[in-house]
Amino acid sequence: MSLRIEGDVRRFRDIVKGRIRRDLKRYMSNGEMIGKKGKDFVSIPLPQIQLPRFRFGENKGGVGAGEGEEGDAVGEEGEGEGDGQGRAGQGAGQHVIEVDVSIEELAAIMGEELELPRIQPRGQKDIVAHKDKYTKIAPVGPDSLKHFRRTYKRALQRQIASGTYRPDNPVVTPERQDNRYRSWKEDNKPERNAVVLYMMDVSGSMGAAQKEIVRMEAFWIDTWLSSQYDGLDTRFIIHDAQAKEVDRDTFFSTRESGGTLISSAYKLAMKMIDEEYPSSEWNIYPFHFSDGDNWSGSDTRDCMRLLQEDMLPKVNAFCYGQVESEYGSGQFYGDLQKAFPDDESVILSKIANKDAVMASIKTFLGKGK
Description:
Blueprint: H1 2-22, H2 24-28, E1 41-47, E2 96-102, H3 103-114, E3 127-138, H4 148-162, E4 181-191, E5 193-201, H5 208-228, E6 231-239, E7 243-246, H6 248-251, H7 263-276, E8 282-290, H8 297-311, E9 318-323, H9 331-339, E10 346-351, H10 357-365
Parallel strand pairs: 5-6, 5-8, 8-9, 9-10
Antiparallel strand pairs: 1-2, 3-4, 6-7
Helix pairs in contact: 3-5, 5-10, 7-8
């Protein structure tokens, strides 16, 4: 019975994965599921998929049960009418359940559907993590690590060899010499870690709709990079004419009314990289989101110099996402194109609306950097 249930659960999860894969674009442009993200799982609403279940209680109905005599018409006028409260709906209802999908499964589905290559880390130095693994059996150890199956097997072997084992009375009594314990060895495993530096223009032209698009992009970027690296650190920088580091919630909710100096964000990002994330040990991903406005041409030139001389030699890729805004000029996208026409480490994406999130993610992550 348990094997049948496990098989049914596996088939159900295959159905769920197929449904997510089919509607991936809709999920990638839906902010609801991002709000239901846990530490290791995401709750995804899936309509028209139901898990059958038994309901226990008194059986008050069934075939032939209820009032009426044989031959009475079914559903005569006036029967079954109630004084229902509220307005009637139009059309059939939709059954919706929420299914928990692990971040790893979600990343695998996204990678397969977007045909994302596995990332080739650029850091030359691995961070070594020390982990204890219980891979050996020893004759001594604490009772908390006693291996009962091995102890029983050893006692059985001893009794058979000594002739004291009786098949008609199969009692096996372990002695001290029979005790076996789990033992460990230290496993030094190299780990590759990555840091994502999210930068965003929070001047007046970047409204709530633009920030929601950035929030969705960041969720899917984190989902994919977390599946590629053993550890993922995220930092958040907001800027108008000045830049500062903030937490995640502040990053997606702050709105200022000042001008825009993009170079302030790049300078702060480089300060973080130089002081905390040496490129020999970390894989570094700066993502900058803006509507393309900058205060002056001189600051734009400073940005290009900072990218060329300081940032690009140290990062895996620099990604710029331009979110469409009715108040933004979009000039900075063209400036980057002109300054880095053939540089594959500079990846640009225009994000017109939520429906463009899927294509933007593929643009950013599709080169496997």
